[in-house]
Amino acid sequence: MADATPAPRLLVVGPSWVGDMVMAQSLFITLKQRHPGARLGVLAPGWSLPILERMPEVDEAIALDVGHGEFSWRTRRDVARSLKGRFERAIVLPRSWKSALVPFLARIPERVGFTGEQRVVLLTERRRLDKARLDQTVKRFVSLGLDAGEAEGEFAIPAPQLRTDPANQQRLRECLALESDRPVIGMMPGAEYGPAKQWPLTHFRELAETLGRHGYRVWVLGGPKDAEDGEVIAGGLDHVVNLCGRTQLADAVDLLAACEQVVTNDSGLMHVAAAVGTRIQAIYGSSSPAYTPPLTANAAIHDLALDCSPCFQRVCPLGHTHCLHHILPDHLLRAIETRD
Questions:
Q1: Is residue 332 a contact partner of residue 207, using CB atoms and an 8 Å limit?
Q2: Taking the alpha carbons of 168, 169, 170, 176 in that order, is the dihedral positive or negative?
Q3: In which domain, by residue range, is 221 found?
Q4: Is 271 helix (H, G, I), strand (E, B) or coil?
Q5: Residue 169: strand pairing partners
Q6: At residue 53, does pLDDT exceed 60?
Q7: So what's the pLDDT on residue 4?
Q8: 287 belongs to a structural domain
Q9: Angle, CA 260 vertex, CA 255 and CA 262 arms, to 5°
């Protein structure tokens, strides 16, 4: 007799950062592998919906438009009302009290997440976070999609894979006048977390100049906040285009897929580039490649592993950021040309 058990209806409360949202796809893949036919909804900030649309595992993306640190009771209540009766289990990825509120108000019967911020009432299943064993963000995400006993052992981490849109990529090439006569190196100088994760702009600029002499074009990608930094890198260089603030997040997916390689800080766009298969030259300063690595085998890590790093600070507490300044442009050039 065929199994008449209906496929589960699952809701994931997603994270608030671009890179974390990309890494969350590893959880989404895991859920769909373990529950064929399941309906998967993701509750997430509105800005992330274009990224979620590139994930075939996500059946429904639900916007929760509240700012960082905002309580926004009315917004959370209204979203919760719209979800009542629609999901059987919620997986809450962030550890904050607020993040567990919507599934609670929506009366989703099963609500699982890590213990934190007095969420005793809000969650029906609270798991202890073993930071030594779950030593990467992506491991923590995937573990919440497993049974508690299985999550205590070893488990597979599927790599994120974002869909690309060739038609949109061609449209962008045309409307942004992006020439395709040379191989393209993408540069992502931004890091939303803070300057202790940002390779010096002078290094990006020097590398961009040299790449032009070696037969490459360079696209500088980032958001509106990165536009001035992009101009520092691109200004006066015919082979460099500053795209910061000129594209949408979904556009970045397609443009990064068109790059031969990218040079990037530990940032959200680094994880996007990894998820479209582009070769990554990843530069780490205050953060650790052991904790938030690009989830691809097609990556090179540039990390000096100084005694003072990783400090995980937004601004260098010693005031010199040697962990980044001492990674020189010539080192990145050699890595690009040898694919090391």
A1: yes
A2: positive
A3: 167-338
A4: helix
A5: none
A6: yes
A7: 55
A8: yes
A9: 75
